[in-house]
Amino acid sequence: MDVPCVRVAPKHGEAVRSRLADADVVADEFDITVEERWLYIPIRDVEEATDALEGSAAETEGKVIAYDVVDYAAPPRKTQTMPADILGWEPSYERLGETALLEEDDDERAREIARAIADSDLPLETVLNKASKIKGETRVRDWDVLAGEGTTVVHREYGCTFELDLAEVYFSPRLATERHRVAQQVTTGERAFDMFAGVGPFVIPFAKRGAECVGVDVNETAIEYLRINAERNGVEDRVTAICADVRSVAPEYGNWADRIVMNLPHSADEFLESAVTIAGDDCLVHYYDIQHEDDPFGPGERTIREAAEPAYEVSVETRRVVRSYAPHELNVCLDVRLER
Hints:
The chain has helices at residues 13-22, 46-53, 83-87, 107-119, 176-183, 203-208, 220-232, 246-249, 272-278, 298-308; strands at residues 3-8, 33-35, 38-42, 59-60, 63-64, 67-72, 94-96, 99-102, 126-130, 143-147, 152-157, 160-165, 191-194, 212-217, 239-243, 257-262, 279-292, 313-326, 329-339. The longest helix has 13 residues, at 107-119. α2 (46-53) packs parallel to α5. By secondary structure, it is α/β, with parallel strands linked by helices. It is built from ten helices and 19 strands.
């Protein structure tokens, strides 16, 4: 069976494999293979793999590594039993660190999948099934623990490590590529402000690129994890973590930020006045929204202009669909430049 693979010269294989492993996109169920002087590294997601290897991420000793992504008949690991081998059909689940996340309404089906995952050779110790929708101001959900112990996980993403408790904080592995896209824009010495920071999936990579960062969240547990993750990643000296409603914090950071992240798609518009307060003379705002597919960007752009003009000149640099959210609804991002 053909699977997507990164093809690279064997002498660069370990450097590339390491980058892909940091991004958690190596397809463990297939063997890495050498054929006709090329090394083939199986991957789970082409876009995430490409992002992981762009620019300096694919450099060694100052030289850019040549690679491409091809379909290749990578052999399955002969010694590895997969959940599908046990079930006789392919189950659906997400991976977060050493945890598998299910979204099954049928409890018996969920437990059958959990048993198969636990009995397989996958490096997954815990299986959780979503037991409720996201709820409340802190956007958390209930989980059924079907295998392993507890809801605490350690997740690696593009060279950063995040510890978190899924029952206490909000975190979506599906946004890894989007977070990496934004982080790649950050430069040393920037002042970056995340208005809804969570455990730090934007703040930590920003700080690792040399930015001075402030992360605010109303969830006290999320802020505790943000501080833990800043220390885990060696950036605690560049991260200020604040537990509060960002509207109460904004006056303390008036005219401060070069970059603002507003990743609260259902209600970010309610915080635009505070964003305008925080924005410096030249500030890029990453504004996330959920809108109908007929006009996914218009409502957000109009709301931003209403809040920022005439104090700022407003220009939209990027209009990006991040993912499909629900039937006919899109999760989008507007990268908006505010210039005083």
